[in-house]
Amino acid sequence: MAGTAGAELNGELVAAIALGAVDWFAAARDVASTAGVAVLEIPICPVPGPSQLSQDIMSPYWVSKIEPTMADLIGSGRQLCAARKYKAKNYRRALGLFTSAMKSCPCARDIKRGRCTCKDFEKVATQGGSIFREAMYTCHCDIGRTFSKCDNLHHIEALDFRATTFVALGELEHAMKDAEWMLELAPRLPDGYLRLGKIAQLQKNDEFAWNIYTSGIEANEETSVDTSSKLQQLHDACKPLNWRFNCRRDPLCLPAELVTHIFSYLTFDQILLCLRVSKQWTCTLTSPVHAPLWRDMTFESSYRVTKRFPSPEELRRILSWAGDGGARKIVTPLFMELNQSMLTVMLEASPSLEHLAIEELQSPIEFPSNGMIWNRLKYFSLRDGSFGIRYGRRVDEPGGFPHSFLQHSASSLEHLYFEGIPAQWYDREPLIPFLPKLKTLRMNEPLCGHIPLSIFHLSIAFPRLEQLFIGPNLLNLDSKPVAIWREKWGNVWPHLKVLVFHFDLHDFMGRSIIHQMKTLSTIRHLVCLNRGNSLQHIHFGFVAEEWSDILFSRSDDLLPGFSLAEYAEFQNLRSFRSNQFCMSPDGARSFLFNAMKTKQLTSFDIKFPKDGVSDRVGDASTRHLKAYEWARGAPSIQQLGCHGFRFGPNSKNDEDMPLPQFLATFPNLRTLILNSWMYYNDKPAEFLNLLLAILRCTHLETIYTGLVDNEPLKQAAGEHGVRVMGWHGLEQWPIPLGA
Known about the structure:
Blueprint: H1 2-18, H2 24-34, H3 50-57, H4 70-82, H5 87-103, H6 121-126, H7 131-137, H8 142-146, H9 153-168, H10 172-185, H11 190-202, H12 206-219, H13 229-245, H14 256-263, H15 268-274, H16 279-285, E1 296-298, H17 303-306, H18 312-321, E2 329-332, H19 340-348, E3 355-358, E4 379-382, H20 403-407, E5 415-419, E6 440-444, E7 453-454, H21 455-461, E8 467-470, E9 477-478, H22 482-487, E10 498-502, H23 505-509, H24 513-527, E11 537-541, H25 548-552, H26 564-567, E12 575-577, H27 585-597, E13 603-607, H28 619-626, E14 639-643, H29 658-663, E15 671-675, H30 677-680, H31 684-697, E16 702-705, H32 711-719, E17 723-726
Parallel strand pairs: 1-2, 2-3, 3-4, 4-5, 5-6, 6-8, 7-9, 8-10, 10-11, 11-12, 12-13, 13-14, 14-15, 15-16, 16-17
Helix pairs in contact: 1-2, 4-5, 4-9, 5-9, 9-10, 9-11, 10-11, 11-12, 11-13, 12-13, 18-19, 31-32
């Protein structure tokens, strides 16, 4: 015990002497008394002079010849702070030890190092700035030029203990300065943020403390919390304050780029409403730094209910907020009374326009044809136009097709979607804009006449087309001139990857047999382009049981021109959708089998025939499914659609149900579309049993069906981890293409 007490006494004596005590005997008594050691015998000798004192102190008789390290000084200071008696006196002595430790840090280079006073962390926090950047870079005095940052843990620890000691003495201003000094020296360490935040909370400044804690967490976001106890303390200190300040903070106080990002999730209509909050919001959101917010002018269809559409003058002012180039995207909905002045303002103020979609023109409007070029416009859509063949308007006149406008955008235009084909496109020498970069074309003619449209002329005007969507009302197509078509066969749309064709059966059957055969011949020509090997997606949306054998027969007896057997391979087909017409299994094989062999096909549809008058219930569907034996077990199939089926009601178990057993053969089938109106109203219980059997036999992830609100189905699907969703039948356009 005596040895231990003596060692402790010797350490405390070192600390006392380091403070520069003149009366070293008095220092020894004070330290010994503080440590609780009885002073029984102290060697008596004459009081030495200053020179003799330093010599005696350094002699082995009293203390070993070791100069105190930073760790020694900090440890001695902590012992003084922990002593039970003479608190105030010991705190003052501890402050001296912590200061000595700071001064002995190598970063000082034997020069007195002061604190930089250029930084104002509280002001930066109030203005929403970066506290880390303030600590890291803000300095206008000589301190920053003379000294570098210091992440010496002993230096930071000494400052931390000194700040804590000042807090114990009630001197919060001094404690705050030391905490700020810690942050200045080591902005990437959590220590300074933690100490400064705690002192701010003692000063009842919780919001500043929350800002400090948050900044410290952000500065150490790449450091795992488990690797640092101080970082864990920082997170723990921040949590109680989050609910008070994180949710009610004015977003405009955040950095500008973050404000822009947050408001970008709002619609254009909602951003306009935000201008009503206050003048400050209006001034901030319309400033140049937030110009990207005004470059997407997508008016929602509900906007008309809440507020009138902007006038031309208001549009001009809004577009000025978008900065140079104006709007990049403009979308106008149905019922927007778009007039000539509004359209002219939006287009002329947006030379950098990239996307223009006009849902409806309620009056004849003329698009600019004054030579202005929109060399960034990639997407143009004009629905419900009044420039079709029935209206007799010439291109470029009010209400006519915007031929010159599109031609002036030819250097960039990639996507075109319109309804109403101009009469000039049907001429022997048609007036069609030449768009060499066009990738997707979707067109429809609601008031289709009896003059056929030549697809070959479109292939010349749009040579790099990748996706073509025709219909649902464009019923008169022509593949002529066939002689030229055959001659240039290898150059007609060599990049065509998507073919979508819809038409209404009743309108189609009302056409003459000549028009019907021309249209069917054109479809067959299109699917045979490039031997069908460039096509990745074929979607047919029409009821054509009467024509399926003609369209998809592998001979050309019924439809002279091109036979699928001679001209089509379809080795790269990804999906084949035909949910409205029943294709014979042999016709389906001509489209799908090669793509299954190359493992490219991932999705296809089966439309089942109706039972014949002499059939029992379900016979036709059973025969049809059995004829798809060639498709069973294809490993590439991930999605399958079954439409219009009706199977027999007398199945004893799952093995007796043809459809579940067929689906079970596809090892990677994940999405199933089941759409059969024959079950929904009359036999919902049978349909539910069929679905439950399918769940048991397959490894599905999603089922699309009309029986989406059935509770037993939802429960069973949940037990198998399957989502049940309603079938909407809508297609995404353009269709996303894989690599």
